[in-house]
Amino acid sequence: xxxxxxxxxxxxxxxxxxxxxxxxxxxxxxxVDAYIDQLAIQQGFSREELTKLFNEAERKPAIxxxxxxxxxxxxxxxxxxxxxxTYDRIAQGVEFWRDNAAVLARAQQDYxxxxxxxxxxxxxxxxxxxxxxxxxxxxxxxxxxxxxxPRSDFFRGELTQFLLLAREEGIDPxxxxxxxxxxxxxxxxxxxxxxxYAVDFDGDGKxxxxxxxxxxxxxxxxxxxxxxxxxxGAVVEPASIDSPRADAVANEGLNLAYTVGQLRAxxxxxxxxxxxxxxxxxxxxxxxxxxxxxxxxxxxxxxRYNHSSMYALAVHQLGEAxxxxxxxxxxxxxxxxx
Length: 338
Description:
The protein is an alpha+beta fold. It has a domain of 117 residues: Helicase, Ruva Protein, domain 3, CATH 1.10.8.350. It contains 17 helices and seven strands. The strands form two sheets. A five-stranded antiparallel sheet has the order 4-6-7-3-5. Strands 1-2 form a two-stranded antiparallel sheet. A hairpin with a 2-residue loop joins β6 and β7. The radius of gyration is 22 Å and the shape is globular. The relative contact order is 0.12.
C-alpha cells in the first residue's frame, strides 16, 4: 500500500511517543513477561531460560526507523529491472551456478525446479549470500514484535516460530543474523518459512540456510515445489493489446483470473500459449512505453516468494540471463542486453 511521507512521519512520531521512553531492552516489561508466560504454557519453554534470553535481547531503534521510514518512490519497471538484471549480478550468478552445479542438478532432479530459478532467487534476495543481513534475528523480531504495533501480531508469530526452530535445530537463538525484518540466510526465509520449507540438503543433520549453499538451494527448490511449480511449464510471455478492454484488465492482481483464451477475446495477442492456460495480464512501464506480459502458472508461483509481479518478472529475466551467459559462455553484459 502506498503511504505518503507525511503519514509515515506521523506514524514514526507516534511510535517514538509511545515507546521512546521504554526500556532500552526488554527486561521487566509486562508485555514481554506475558509473552514468556504464554510460551511456557503453550510451547513448553522454560520461563527462566526465556527471561534470561529476553534480558539479553536488544531493542533496535534503527529497525523501527527502517520499517517505518518513507519507502522509496515506486519505481517503473525499467528502473526496477536495472537493479537486478545487471552485469555484476549475472556474473556472480554464473559463478554461483558453476560452484554449485552438482547441487543444483540434484535439486532439479528432486524438486523439478530449474537451476536458473533457484540461482535467480538467491541472486535477487542476497546477491548469492553477499548481503544476507547483519541484525541478530532475535533482536529484529523482538523489536518488531513488541515495539511495532502496526504488525506486532505478525512479528510475535514469527518470533515464536524462530524460538521453535532454534529449539528444533539445536541453534542458540542469540547467534543467527538476518535482515531488519528477521529474514534469514541465502534465500531470506522468515522463520515460519524455514520451519515449513527448509531442508537438510547436504546431509549433515542440520538445516543451515545461513552458511550452507547446499541447504539454501534445496530449501528454495522445496519452497517452489510445495507452492506448485510445474516442471517444464512456461513462466511468462510477451504480449501486445489491440483493445482498451484488454488494457482495463491489466494489473488486476496476482491471482490468475483469466484463461489465455479469455484474454485473447479481450484483445490480448500472445503466441505459443494454449487457450486453456490460466493467466493474468501485466502492464509494465518500459523504457519506451508500456510492455505487456501474460503471466502463467509458474509466474504466479514466483509471486508466492514475494507478492510482486515486477519481482517475479525480474527473477525470471535474471534467471534467463544467467542461463544464457553460462550456456553460451558470453559476457554477462551481452546476456543482460538480450
